[in-house]
Amino acid sequence: MKHILYRELKLNLKTFLIWSLSVGAIGLICILLYQSMEGDMKDMADMFSNMGAFSDAFGMSTLSIATLSGYFATEVGTVHGLGSGMFSAILAADIISKEEDKHSGEFLFTLPVSRSKVLTAKGICVAIMLVLFTVICAIFYVSGFWYLGEELPTSEFVTFMLRQLLMNIEIAAICFAISAFSGKSKMGMGLGITLFFYVYDLMGRVVPDLKDYLFIGPYSYANASEIFSGIEVSASALILAICVSVCATICAYVIFGKRDLAS
Predict the structure, then answer these.
(1) Within 13 Å and on the Cβ side, how many CA atoms surround 125?
(2) Segment 171-222, tens digit of pLDDT
(3) With CB atoms counted within 10 Å of each terminal CB, which end of the chain scores lower, N or C?
(4) 46 and 107 in contact (C-beta within 8 Å)?
(5) For 232, left (φ over 0), alpha (ψ -120 to 50), or beta?
(6) Phi/psi class of residue 81: alpha, beta or left (left: φ > 0; alpha: ψ in -120 to 50)?
(7) Within 13 Å of residue 93, how many CA atoms lie on the same side as its CB?
(8) Exposure pattern of 153-167 as b/e (b: 16+ CB <10 Å)?
(9) Which of 57, 97, 71 has its CA nearest to residue 198?
(10) pTM strictly above 0.85
């Protein structure tokens, strides 16, 4: 199993580096741009806070982008949330099905290793890369605050990054289960699920009838504007996220363990 884990880490290293460095760098650039726009931020903040549904959807009605922490939550929070979710989906949606799709399974599954151990190695690979992705992006963002000489709201920042990690794990678990169902790549479906969750969260913050069901989506408890505003997250959203992650992972083991693999 150890050798399978090393193999997966090596095979996914390029994708991991591209996504983590790209998302982290884009977030850092956004933070550094704040300094050049700081003088105009107050007028922009007043304008954006009074744009009705748009302001509610992106948290500009509760946070002021005239401050770096408010700007980070509304701008960088959006970039990181969407980028990390897409990376999670891409990583997990293809990690099982690629063995059949690319016919490498003809060798892998002849080894004296059970299917459950293969899945465990792949799951650990996904978890390691999601944690490292979060750490690398966090280093980029902290560096931006440090370079501008601004105080980092440590508690809110750590909470945001940890909840983003949980969100990524939930999305990855769903895509991991989807990958176990088929021998064809489901990367497109994984990206579609991520975008659906993101749009659902935006709509839920605008449409009154959807607000009571906002906790269903993984973006509900990882919303940066709420975290930096000090709004308490619904406990049901966190419990549901953990339950979905566990159930999706179990489903992957059960389905993959019983499915006939394509040659």
Answers:
(1) 28
(2) 999 998 888 877 676 778 889 999 999 888 888 777 777 777 788 889 989 9
(3) C
(4) no
(5) beta
(6) alpha
(7) 20
(8) beebbebbbebbbbb
(9) 57
(10) yes
The Cα–Cα gap between 241 and 170 comes to 6
Rounded Cα distance, 115 and 245, in Å: 20
CB of 118 closer than 8 Å to CB of 235: no
b/e per residue, 57-83, with b = 16+ CB within 10 A? bbbbbbbbbbbbbbbbbbbbbbbbbeb
| Per-residue tokens: 172 | 């990855």
The C-alpha atoms of residue 67 and residue 59 are separated, in whole angstroms, by: 14
- Are the beta carbons of 130 and 172 closer than 8 angstroms? yes
Does 262 have pLDDT greater than 70? no
For the chain, what's the residue count? Answer: 263
Helix (H, G, I), strand (E, B) or coil at 162: helix
Rounded to an integer, what distance in angstroms lies between the CA atom of residue 53 and that of residue 93? 33
Rounded Cα gap, residues 6 and 115, in angstroms: 17
